[in-house]
């Protein structure tokens, strides 16, 4: 039996969600194509319910945290299991810990690159200072006086 559309007070248009979450209509349609959102149709219009609104917030948060859309979909789809969300929470926790470890590794790599760049800047500044000193007017005067 098809599910009834949400009551009007629980409905959101594409424009309302677009404005609330600062995303494009194209983004919302893309998430729909990926199965992340499932709006009801009223003719050509998409009508989103609270579930879609909540899922959109979770999708955007997941993207900000660096999860792929496939990972986000996997975690969201686990909500529908009839196990009181235990599996969803376990998978989300595992993926979150993996992401944290990955971000720590990236931060360490970034810190190493920053240190390398700072050392390179110090060397370049020293070389530049020496080159400028060699070209100073005093040196030019000395060179002219010996000719």
Structure description:
With 147 residues, this protein is mainly alpha-helical. It has a domain at 1-66: Multidrug-efflux Transporter Regulator, Chain: A, Domain 2. 67% of the residues lie in helices and 6% in strands. The protein has a 3-stranded antiparallel β-sheet with strand order 1-3-2. Strand 2 and strand 3 (45-48) form a beta hairpin. Helix 3 (50-64) packs across helix 4 (69-77) and helix 4 (69-77) packs antiparallel against helix 5. The longest helix has 49 residues, at 86-134.
What is the element layout, followed by pairings?
Layout: E1 12-13, H1 14-21, H2 25-33, E2 40-42, E3 45-48, H3 50-64, H4 69-77, H5 86-134, H6 137-145
Antiparallel strand pairs: 1-3, 2-3
Helix pairs in contact: 3-4, 4-5
Radius of gyration, CA atoms, in whole angstroms = 29 Å
Number of strands: 3
What's the order of the H and E elements? EHHEEHHHH
**What's the number of helices?**
6
Low-confidence stretches: none
**Name of the top-level CATH class of one domain:** Mainly Alpha
- In terms of quaternary structure, what is this? single chain
Largest sheet composition: 3 strands, antiparallel
Proper CATH architecture of one domain: Orthogonal Bundle
Distance between the termini: 102 Å
**Largest beta sheet: what is the strand line-up?**
1-3-2
CATH topology value of one domain: Multidrug-efflux Transporter Regulator, Chain: A, Domain 2
Classify the helix fraction into a percent range.
Answer: 55-70%
Strand proportion, as a percent range, falls in 5-15%
Shape annotation: elongated
Helix/strand/pairing category: mainly alpha
Whole-number average pLDDT? 89
């Amino acid at each position: 039996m098809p599910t009834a559309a949400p009551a009007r007070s629980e409905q959101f248009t594409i424009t309302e969600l677009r404005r609330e979450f600062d995303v494009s209509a194209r983004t919302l349609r893309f998430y729909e194509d990926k199965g992340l959102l499932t709006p009801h149709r009223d003719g050509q219009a998409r009508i989103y319910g609270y579930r879609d609104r909540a899922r959109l917030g979770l999708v955007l948060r997941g993207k900000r945290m660096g999860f792929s859309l496939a990972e986000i979909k996997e975690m969201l789809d686990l909500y529908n299991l009839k196990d009181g969300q235990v599996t969803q929470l376990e998978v989300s926790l595992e993926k979150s810990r993996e992401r944290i470890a990955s971000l720590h590794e990236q931060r360490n790599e970034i810190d190493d690159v920053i240190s390398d760049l700072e050392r390179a800047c110090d060397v370049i500044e020293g070389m530049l200072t020496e080159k400028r000193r060699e070209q100073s007017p005093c040196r030019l005067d000395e060179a002219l006086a010996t000719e």
